[in-house]
Amino acid sequence: MEDTEPQSQLPEDHTGHSSRSGTIDPSESVTGVGVVFGIVGAVVGIVATILTADASGVLEWIVCCIIGVLAGGSAGIVIGGLFGAIFGVLRGVTVPTLRNPER
To answer: Does pTM top 0.85 for this prediction?
Structure first.
């Protein structure tokens, strides 16, 4: 049995590269920047805890460092998500709209 459906042909100037190379998905930018800022925030939180905590025992230092990591990491994720959303909106994918919608 022979396939009789017409096949779509590649354009003449097709180079094999994606046409979306200059755009990004906004959700990917939010996730990526949020993760990076979260890691940076966690490191800043643990350093700030070590420098400022007034703990007398090892267990107290561990608890204070865990709280510092969680606080810094969550703050970094929030700020990173904000910057990622701004970056994603400015450079993100635009949804095509109809110019003359039929009603």
So the answer is: no
